[in-house]
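We close this part of the discussion by returning to an individual protein. The encoding preserves chain order, so positions in sequence and tokens coincide. The sequence in question and its structure tokens are set out directly beneath this paragraph:

===
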Amino acid sequence: MEYLEFELPIKELEEQLGKCQIIGEESDVDVTQTCKQIEKKLVATKKEIYKNLTPWQRVQMSRHPDRPYTLDYIKSLCGDSFLELHGDRSFKDDKAMIGGLGKIGDQSFMFIGQQKGYNTKTRQYRNFGMANPEGYRKALRLMKSAEKFGIPVVTLLDTPGAYPGLEAEERGQGEAIARNILEMTRLKVPIITIVIGEGASGGALGIGVGDKIMMLENTWYSVISPESCSSILWRSWEYKELAAEALKLTPTDMKKMKIVDEIIKEPLGGAHSDRETTFKTVSEAIVSAYDEFKNLSPKDLVNKRIEKYCDMGVFKG
């Protein structure tokens, strides 16, 4: 288990609890009462810390190395029913963008999402979750297949941004993302979008247009990361905490501005602290969202989606 800087008081208490339990096991001393006191203090400390997270701390939580990634969610939600599909039929298969068919219960879904790596080797293999144009073109191909067979689409957002390399720009990164946004607005099947980690810039928006948009509690969604914002405005990364505050990137801010529809609660300590509960909550949220849209005609579905986006950012004086 890895700990973030603000989680160190929790680490100390967990270590104390561990030592206390070892003493109880290895000697005749009754430490039951002491262990209970430490456990009580641990729960209170966790509640105090996670109840008052700053926007920057939420950004840190969204990047926690133990946090579940797209494939973890898909494997848990679909089990053995998931069939991964590859390639954009033009250039190559982008390993940073995952896509395929899977079932939750008896209902089939087309799952699409960015995948980060767990260690240095897999992070390089997955290009740190930063998709190239062919990743977005693969996503669009899969969405069009889902539309053809009347299968709802679920997109899972977790990326620090689309890959900004020269070769990605040469192959039309901007066009690929813009094309996806256009096509997703008029896709004739329900689209359920969930931000499971970082929702950064056009990289997230390229698969982020949906009928229902949800965010897990410790995630963020913004046009730019706090570090990049800080380096542009102040020529330094030192002001990233200030930038995170100003960007209004937390789920609460997003819901208040009606950019997202729902916040999915995480277990105390974040999604990684109790993965099974997190997966169960996300599964229920997907099924509930699908039930909301499954009886709409394709025409009504598209009209409703376009209205939803046209209403965003409307200011009444």
